[in-house]
Design goal:
- The chain is of the alpha+beta class.
- Helices cover 14% and strands 27% of the residues.
- The protein contains 3 helices and 4 strands; from the N terminus they run E-H-E-E-E-H-H.
- The N and C termini lie far apart (44 Å).
Length: 86
């Protein structure tokens, strides 16, 4: 049964570097990438992803969600209490 994918178009992910993978995937190991497409593979029974600048299909296990690139910058010294509630 099809469920919602773990990653979505535009998500920033880090390619895991501690897996055995085909040589063409190794060049991305440890790098940050952006998901450019998501599709359900009926044959495999899972979601497959493509990243920008690559045409290989990736799966959930190939990625770590890159929280650092998803958090907005925050500088408390530039904000006042009034700014937080407006």
């Amino acid at each position: 049964m099809e469920m919602d994918s773990r990653y979505h178009v535009g998500d920033k992910v880090r390619i895991v570097s501690n897996r055995l993978s085909p040589e063409e995937m190794d060049k991305f190991a440890g790098t940050k990438q952006e998901v450019k497409s998501v599709q359900w593979c009926y044959i495999c029974g899972r979601y497959e992803y493509r990243i920008k600048n690559d045409s290989i299909f990736w799966c959930d296990d190939d990625f770590e969600f890159d929280v650092q690139t998803e958090l907005p910058e925050f500088n408390a010294s530039e904000l006042s209490l009034k700014d937080l509630f407006n």
